Amino acid sequence: MTTTTAKPAWLVLEDGTTFPGRSFGADGERFGEAVFNTAMTGYQEILTDPSYKGQIVCMTYPHIGNYGVNEEDVESHRPWLEGFVVRSLSPIVSNFRAQMSLEAYLQQHQIVAVDQVDTRALTLRLRREGAMKAGLSTVEPDPERLLKKVRESPGIVGVDLVQSVTCRQPYEWPAGGTAPLTAATRAGASSAKCHIVVVDYGVKYGILRQLAGLGCYLSVVPAAMPARGILAMKPDGIVLSNGPGDPAAVTYAIATIRELVGRAPLLGICLGQQLLGLALGGRTFKLKFGHHGANHPVQDLATGKVEITSQNHGFTVDLDSIPQRQVELTHVNLNDRTVEGMRHRQLPIFSLQYHPEASPGPHDSRYLFRQFLDAVEGASRSA
Amino acid sequence: MPKRTDIHKILVIGSGPIVISQACEFDYSGTQACKALKEEGYTIILVNSNPATIMTDPEVAHRTYVEPITADVVEKIIEAERPDALLPTLGGQTALNVSVQLAERGVLERFGVEMIGAKLDAIKRAEDRELFKETMESVGLEVPKAGYARTLEEAKGFAQQLGFPCVIRPSFTLGGTGGGIAYNIEELERIAKLGLELSMIREISVEESVIGWKEFELEVMRDKRDNVVIVCSIENFDPMGVHTGDSITVAPAQTLTDREYQQMRDAAIRVIRAIGVETGGSNIQFAVHPDSGRLVVIEMNPRVSRSSALASKATGFPIAKIAAKLAVGYTLDELPNDITKQTPACFEPTLDYVVVKIPRFAFEKFPGADPTLGIQMKSVGETMAIGRTFTEAFQKGLRGLEVRTAGWEGPAEITVDELRQRLPVPTAERVFLLKAAFQQGLAVEEVQALTHIDRWFLQHLKELADSEAALKSRGEALLAGGARSEPEPEGLKEVLWQAKQLGFSDRQLGAWWSRPEQEIRTLRARLGVRPSYYLVDTCAAEFEAATPYYYSTYERPPMMIGTPAAGPAPSASSPRKRNVMILGGGPNRIGQGIEFDYCCVHAAFALRELGIEVIMVNSNPETVSTDYDTSDKLYFEPVTLEDVLNIVEREQPEGVIVQFGGQTPLNLAVGLAKAGVPILGTRAEQIDAAEDREKFRQLLNQLGLRQPPSATAMTEADAAAAARAIGYPILVRPSYVLGGRAMEIAYDDAQLLPFVRAAFDASPGFPVLVDKFLEDAIEVDVDLVGDGETFVIGGILEHIEEAGIHSGDSAMVLPPYTLGEEILGTIRRATIQLGQALQIFGLMNVQYAVKDDTVYILEVNPRASRTVPFIAKATGVPLAKLATKVLAGVSLREQGFTEEVAIPYLAVKESVFPFARFPGVDIALGPEMRSTGEVMGIDEDFGRAFLKSQLAAGQNLPRDGTVFVSVKNKDKRTVGLIAKRLEELGFRLIATAGTAKALQGYGVHAAPIKKIHEGRPNVLDLIKNGEIRLIINTPSGRLPRADEVRIRSAAATLGVPCVTTISGAQACVTALEVLQKQAIRVQPLQSYHALIKAVPRAVARDG
Predict the structure, then answer these.
(1) For chain A, what is the mean pLDDT?
(2) B909 pLDDT exceeds 70?
């Protein structure tokens, strides 16, 4: 735990707040929006969640890396975030499933990471001042110069981050599967209950695993695939996935969704909900420091029951801005009363701001996938 | 769903006396619950026999019954009060068991009382092991494999199937008594045999061993709408096999991936639903196989628990308060999170710190007890520490434990072989042995193989040991360099930062570099290495916290660079409010328990009544004092000089109160005063006059008061000479200890010397005190409150047991029941004289011995005593509050308290002992305190009050049957009358030959019975066969014969009441007379207090 041999690094926020730290990931310099995540477990899922593209993530729980990294708990094939900031990297890995240490994994994937940062001080700064641009560097010895670069960096508002995380080619995911379909597993499409197309804005495997676990055969398609291409796949339902950044910047996706409305049952998750809101003519806005964690209470307005949810978003839908009262509020965040779920008043269109697939986080909301599939089945019966 | 309006009156049952496994956490939870329900407008009926609790303060409930918590008595209370509902889940196992009995007897049905929180069937599903197993399996969860055996052969059969080691638990015994772990067939036979004997239904379970597996706990809450949240996860440092109450535990869980954690969370939710706890909190324990991840459910407590108190303090989520509100119909989303105020209680707290709980043991009080930790809890208290990292919290916890270590310290001289032998055995010392192991170069892998402690913890400890070595030598070099010139400040600063971040105390650093602690403090201040105070806010800083609940940590502040943003100028500080700091007592231990926390809490209440800001410092998670509601600012910190001074620097209180928290804060008084901290209360030179034996002797001479002849000795030879000069018997004790530690009575030189040696060991470097022991004297305790001008006696308590029994262990009566007015007058005058002479500000306790109508002063303590809460409950006079207001500058006259209060009834304080947990330990009372708690019996006359105190203390007094009498020669004269009364009551007497012969002389027939060494069947056989219902056995001497010890220990283990003093036996017989002739009547404290005419009322100056 002595820092004598450790490589120093700087984390500099846009407002000049500067934290010295110890590098434990790749060498380099990265810029992004600094956010904090309050989940106490699930750093591997967070690292590999494509929604963190463009962000430097600070974990509020101090000990990170305790259980190492394994092959199973990934939400995509690689980490996407710009940088990773923790209080204390674990000096050892202790878990029966661990295959690698966190630092080895981050180095392997060229992620810049730093520990020995007062993450509570950092979190308080972000809570009070709002999420802000930040830079993380192991190569720049002068924090003043790093600050200048931070201030010049583009930030994430108005930037389309989806294009850098969406899949290049469509791929399939078998019913019951926990990983993408490969040549070896190319079978079983016929036995699937239904066929769901997932538009990949940065989809988490968790969503795919949940749908596949319910017996769906999945086609995952790139974000820019036009509506006609999607509809040509004759989906029983379409899922608009989670993804990174500012929804308003993903104009092509909004246009596509506008064409999909009314053509098949839709489920929007996280960025998917925001894009849906925009497609329906509404507005989105940026939250001060977003929701990133695994303990947010969300009330289902139909039953009054509360789910403890996994959340990760910086933008949200302004429900009142959606014209003609097309949608109704179905779920609300009990902490700040923001929109957590909505449904179309006429069409089988649903969306959620939070993550029913959890990973990481509580499993309270997984029933929503079944609800969506019920709607999909209902729609196909009546069709 | 809003609260229920169909119920109005709610009965809350407390947990009774403090015992091992049921401590003041249930006062914390019960007080919260009563307050929470009262503020909803319900009428609260409370029953709890423990007078030292906050919950039995007459303002907490509407009707407070300080009565024995037995089904018979509670039935009477129900009959009198006719409550609509009974809340059984907040008073520990005691309340749960009594509630089940009341339900099963049909009492609840008969009086139309609804059980809220958990219903009978849910409690049974959780408590009955077979039903629990069935329920778990029905929802697809695993429990350890087990079989139920009624014979030794069956037990062996199961053991063969399950393999060794296996766990044996007798069905239906109290507190897991008699269970054990068998590693081979021989041990199995021994444990199974004993278990079958101890089980009330002659049944034992033989379970698959999960020893060495990882142990986890989840604290779960559920509401009527089936919303379920997990408040906290806990991972045990000590793996399965050590009772969780005896384990070091850590929150949150450290070594679970999210996937495994969520599986456990899902399982916990399934458990609470399947068991059917409708509303409230439950604690669920899991074991996880370290190599396969196999998860088994160990047990579930369908109520708040010690762990839930810990979880509340660890997270800031008030489980008991919320549980009470849920029980009356609220749902989690309707209740606010008290800490943030803005967000609801329906969420899961997230931590940005690490919490470490460390148990505190008292094996030194029970020579002969097995110090191995196992499935039966043995610790008497605990401390909790919060830090930003595990290592920081771990070291803070160890220094807060007050076992003379300044942090993690290992034994200096121990061989690797010895370590390898001792590490596999869980003991109180093992955590310290780990340091020696790493210092001597054992690898983490080897230590893990020896201890099964997870390598995550071990690696941190290893690095802690390594860092210590590195930092120590770096610091040494830098400081040595500094001797020639100025030490290089940057290097030294770096060393200090690193050391402090790892949780090392200034005392430890001082020891590294052979410098006084104060010098390290000065050095840190100069280099700017200071702690930050962070909040326990339930949300990892995501929301603003409204509640100032702090812990210290060493974090280097971030820098600000670039053009500074034009921030708001620091606002002008608002006019300074008066503020006072109260130091708590740290972990409970024998001699320093809930009574002192009670005083601290009252001090806080009193100051708040005066509008003074209260800053509380304490490290005990079980207490009401560490409820963030009790004070204005709570610092959850070790009560050590360093930690307290840091807070003083930050808060700048106008004064610090050290006289309420017991020995812990008192020991800091000198250090604090030296640092210029204003200490409220009796002036230091007056305290010195009471504590310095020479000055005290002079004072007594001046006042014309008598004390037993005494001397001090610095060597064994001095002590022996002094003893001979004074004349035996002699009371020997060390300086500056608590609870009569190493206090002994010697009758000759041969006995004296080992006691003197033990006393020197207990307080090294200080003189041993040698006093004349006044045999057969009556002891009296007096508490006084003074303001420097007015001195008022709070209460005079007569001990039932004769002098020589520690005052913390004696039964006591208020008002005195045998002493004449003349003697009492002498005692009153002496007490007031002492108060005046010592210029007492606040509380003072004086202990007297009365022998042959002469009053001797034994001790004067210018501070709160253990008897303060008892007196307050008996008389209705809030002594601790009165004293606190005096400290804050309000005179007794201004408070309207100038006269001692006389009560027209009697209150008996009885002590409760943990002997059943320590088989083989002699239960005979002596000058070393060994009780863990107390109860109060209150009634119109002595017999009834004493009987209630015995029932409340769990003494199973018989109405008929056989009494075994065996007393030492000296007592044979007095036992005659006692035996005669027993005979008249229809008891059959048996006695050992000598006693039987003596009784014959009094015309009492006692059948003779063999002593143990005289062959069989002997008295032990009769005890084991349940043929003896009461034992009167006075020890033959301070070093009793092994026979006697076996008899008394067997009685304790089997729950046969055993009286070990003649005066106790006299009182006991009086109680038996009442038991036979009169029905028990119940009355609330409020009614007793109403009987006191012209009760002086405490008036707050500022309202």
Answers:
(1) 95
(2) yes
Which helix (H) or strand (E) is B29 found in, with range? helix B25-38
- List residues bridging with B553 in a β-sheet: B532
Whether the pTM exceeds 0.90: the reply is: yes
Chain A CB contacts of B222 under 8 Å are none
| Angstrom distance (rounded) from CA B653 to CA B676 | 12
Which residues 330-359 of chain A have a CB within 8 Å of chain B? 334-335, 358-359
CA within 13 Å, CB half, B27: 29
At B169 the pLDDT is 85
Distances (CA, A) of A164 to A230, A274, B55: 20, 18, 62
Tell me what ipTM this predicted complex has. Answer: 0.97
- Tell me the average pLDDT across B868-886: 98
Listed residue (B1001, B937, B936) closest to B975, CA to CA: B1001
Q: Which of residues 247-306 of A touch B (CB under 8 A)?
A: 293-297, 299, 304-306
pLDDT at position B142 over 80: yes
Instruction: Please indicate whether, in this complex, the C-beta atoms of A17 and B556 are within 8 angstroms of each other.
Output: no
Q: Which two tokens stand for residue A265?
A: 């049952």
Q: Which of B407, B456, B472, B397 is nearest to B435 (CA)?
A: B407
Interface of B with A in 590-649 (CB under 8 A): none
Burial bucket for residue B265 (CB in 10 Å: 0-12, 13-18, 19+): buried
DSSP B141: -
pLDDT one-digit tens code per residue, A260-282: 999 999 999 999 999 999 999 99
Q: Which residue of B has its CA nearest to A149?
A: B562
* Residue with token string 């029966």: A96
Q: How many other C-beta atoms are found inside a 10 Å radius of the C-beta of residue B370?
A: 16
Instruction: Say whether B293 and A96 touch across the interface (CB within 8 A).
Output: yes
Lowest mean pLDDT among A178-187, A288-297, B517-526, B968-977: A178-187
CA distance B415 to chain A (A): 27
Contact (Cβ atoms closer than 8 angstroms) between residue B360 and residue B588:
yes
| C-alpha span between B1044 and B1049 (Å, rounded) | 8
How is residue B14 written in tokens? 């407390």
Q: Residue B570: pLDDT above 70? A: no
Position A183 scores a pLDDT of: 63
B778-787 sheet: strands from edge to edge: B854-861, B841-851, B778-787, B791-802, B812-814, B906-912, B933-939
**A60: which 2 tokens?**
């509020």
Instruction: Look over chain B and give the mean of its residue pLDDT values, rounded to a whole number.
Output: 93
- Is the CA virtual torsion B18, B23, B29, B35 positive or negative? positive
Report whether pLDDT(B423) > 90.
Answer: yes
Residues B719 and B732 sit within 8 Å (Cβ to Cβ): yes
- d(CA A134, CA A32) in angstroms, rounded, equals 6
Helix axes B594-609, B868-875, angle to 10 degrees: 60
pLDDT category of residue B943 using cuts at 50, 70 and 90 = very high
Look at residue B262 and tell me whether its pLDDT is greater than 70. Answer: yes
Cα separation, A36 vs A122, whole angstroms: 8
Q: Are strands B214-222 and B228-236 parallel, antiparallel or unpaired?
A: antiparallel
Alpha-carbon distance of B255 to B966, in angstroms, equals 57
The amino acid at B743: M
**Chain-centroid distance, C-alpha A234:** 27
Of the candidates A359, A361, A311, the residue with the CA atom closest to the CA atom of residue A331? A311
